[in-house]
């Protein structure tokens, strides 16, 4: 049998330990002694390896000097045969390797003899002496083997040893083909040794970084807060700590290695970075997931192509890489869709990036006030909101704006006060917060002179825009004037935001000052943050999801941009009666024309608009739009513009709608037709859908550079075609055809039988057993020239596409106006679908005269229902009828049992008013009202631990804010005020607050209480009416009192709250309830006795002094009995 190769044998025996080597040595010695006793005349073997019988001697062993490998050799014939097959180069290499691995002290095992078999097993008298010497040196042998084992562990024991060996074994380049049935065309495989294999030994273990890793570190050290995704060939890689983050967030494999980006001693034993990789075509998916998880993500791309690099001076240097894209939640606009939110999160955030700054506080404690400036930008739509305001120690104004805007990212300028900072942390820190997901917070310092620097920076920024706007100086100058009139805190925020968005390439959004909007514009009803939460306007209070909220009940929109506009409408109800009447008229017309041709046409148009035009237009404005997206947007705009005829000509047909909002919105759509068609005629639609940069433009609209490079490529391809004749002549054949194999073009195939006719200058690329494939020098020169022209053509095509996007961006305003008109139509159609539900009616808006003597605020609701509860309760909602008006009833004092429906009733009243001023029909038989300027609520019991405030502190603080903000045209809802403290203090505060809102503020008020002793207040105050929630009380079979809630509103007072009934429903143990009932009866008896004693005292005083006030107190005490 042919012996095994030395390399294979070495690999199989390289894991011997000192224990196994010593065992083999002992076995050899025993075998020698046995053979010497049984055959004294036979010459003993000369080595332990020869002592093994032939039948057991499967692999002759050779102990190498370094102890790492054990080679084998066969008999002399096999050795001669093996050695004869080795080339001189291989023999020299093997000899050199053996000399390098030879230790100073040889092992006791001698090399295998090359003598014949008979001579090898002959008697050798020196063997016994040699065996004795081996036995004497046993201890030395053990020590040497342990030293060899230690060297083995040092060489192969580190974590990446096997990976590095596999890397060396796989460092060959193989070109394969499918073999035919007879395996005659199998590809020849030529092993190409890797460059790393040349560096074996101590020098190869140095932890020097590769040029690519040095590139990465140079970029990473400038962006330590960013997760970098670096392009490396046909994949993107994460390195170091970024790889660990990517593995966690993306559920991909992280190869262990260095995590830190500095030379830390704890990672001195590691010579490479930890890494993770993703395919090129999945970049956008994974980047989007990282951004949605709250990370700042940067993409590092190769900014030079292989062809141009090969033709340049840096062909031996690594690819030039630069940070080309940065993304965060607030700045991610590279995808048309919304960012994915966590499944457990609530409603998604508004997509705003909010910048905030504030001045040093004035005063202390409850008298503390600060001036706050905010600027919120929505890069995906171009909307900008700004405001500056004074806020008290509760920071209610800040909270209101944050809950309205719902930012997904904060930029804090300077230091915030403790109260504001804790509020921001509370609202942004949780993964399931009121914004729907965890918000990112970044901070920038604020110097003492930042206000002046900000003004100078903003002035210079917009002055540059004025210089660039040649021919549009009036518009640019008006833009500059508008910005320079902003308040100082807003200017500071604007300067910081310009710097921040410049890093992401989005600073051009501030050119669109048409969409600058002040938050505190008094053309809308004030709905503060507390009201948004208590009325569940945007999300429910159970799990903070959108289902069950007012917006959920109203949202029947068909487009993304329509949905965003409706969200703004819901949060900012109208105060202008004329505008509100126009909106209601539009909704009523759509309702009346339901199922008619105009409405069906509008609904089809909206349903077929799948593209988020608002986001796509801003992506075009930023120059980040793709070719397929651009053609989709333009074709959608063309279809929208052609849906309705233009109304500018005299022969135009009558408009399909009469209401002003509908008529104006429909008329705005055809105005963009000519503009859109002028862009579409330049584009080849089929090539654009395939994202083909070379065929994107029609031939008539290609640039001169594109045509030049296309002609150069055609010329090179013609030369390649004519070169076939020269190649055929050299091969002495009639014709030569080019073939393409494994992506390599212009290969010339030559049968191996004719290989001698191939010129020496031809380069062999690949081959099979039957043929070889070559590139001629001319082919290599021409293909390189063609590749250079292709790269230049691609660059020219990209420049032309960017120029087209810039041209379209110049028409952003009219295109955006058309999309806004379509969004308005979508919102009105959604409200008409709500109005079509059973039991909805159009509200009647009453005159809102300034002269309150002739007309005051009033609300009258007949058979009203809760707009969300009626959709979520299977048994249906029991309607109510109520009214509030000047001079009376100005306020309702509402009592009733627990769970009787008091809170649901007052919330339903507020929501119906809110719906009416949004422009929606309301769930009632009738509603007439004057417009309310604000809805203030103080409901529920909650503490504010992040600000160190108790439940009662939150109650009275919110009440104080309401008393300071409410006007005679406000609707105020106070639910169980005073329950956070003792009964006497709570009742006193509730009494005083009710007295103030009725006698001083004179606003419409709904006041819920469980303090029955407040009921007489209604008789003592003009305009206050007692209401209660009806119920039936009866004794059950078990002797306990059972309550049946009727959920109807009626006049009068409920003298008991029946809290024990709620405790029974909550399954409090019966023993506890019995004790509670006994104590309750005893306390009621004691209270009645005290009141009777009081009545008797008042009665005696009244007889003594009939003209005193004791008679009034007597009557009041009798009523309380």
Strand residues, percent: 5-15%
Could you tell me the radius of gyration in angstroms? Answer: 44 Å
Strand order in space, largest sheet: 14-26-27-28-23-29-30
Sketch the major β-sheet.
7 strands, mixed
Assembly state: single chain
Mean pLDDT: 78
CATH homologous superfamily label of the largest domain: P-loop containing nucleotide triphosphate hydrolases
Name the overall outline: elongated
**CATH architectural category of the largest domain:** 3-Layer(aba) Sandwich
Number of domains: 6
Reading off the top of the CATH hierarchy, the class of the largest domain is best stated as: Alpha Beta
Helix content: 40-55%
Structural class of the secondary elements?
alpha/beta
| Number of continuous helical runs | 38
Question: Can you lay out the helices and strands and say which pair or pack?
Answer:
Blueprint: H1 6-13, H2 18-38, E1 62-63, E2 70-71, H3 76-85, H4 88-101, H5 117-120, H6 126-136, H7 138-156, H8 161-169, H9 211-220, E3 227-232, E4 235-239, H10 241-250, E5 275-279, H11 283-292, E6 297-302, H12 306-311, E7 321-327, E8 352-358, E9 370-378, E10 383-391, H13 396-405, E11 407-413, H14 418-429, E12 440-444, H15 450-468, H16 473-484, H17 488-502, E13 516-518, E14 526-527, H18 529-534, H19 550-554, H20 560-571, H21 577-592, H22 597-607, H23 613-622, H24 627-641, H25 660-668, H26 673-680, H27 685-689, H28 704-731, E15 738-741, E16 744-751, E17 763-767, E18 771-775, H29 777-809, H30 812-835, E19 840-841, E20 844-845, E21 858-864, H31 869-872, E22 880-885, E23 891-895, H32 902-918, E24 922-923, E25 926-929, E26 934-938, H33 951-965, E27 970-975, H34 983-1001, E28 1004-1008, H35 1015-1020, E29 1024-1035, E30 1041-1051, H36 1059-1065, H37 1070-1104, H38 1110-1120
Parallel strand pairs: 3-6, 8-11, 10-13, 11-12, 14-26, 20-25, 23-28, 23-29, 26-27, 27-28
Antiparallel strand pairs: 1-2, 3-4, 4-5, 6-7, 8-9, 9-10, 15-16, 16-18, 17-18, 19-24, 21-22, 21-25, 29-30
Helix pairs in contact: 2-6, 2-7, 15-16, 15-17, 20-30, 21-30, 22-30, 23-24, 23-29, 23-30, 24-26, 25-30, 28-29, 37-38
GO biological process, one term: mitotic recombination
Biased composition (Low complexity): 31-41
InterPro entries: DNA_mismatch_repair_MutS-lik_N, DNA_mismatch_repair_MutS/MSH, DNA_mismatch_repair_MutS_C, DNA_mismatch_repair_MutS_clamp, DNA_mismatch_repair_MutS_core, DNA_mismatch_repair_MutS_N, DNA_mismatch_repair_MutS_sf, MutS
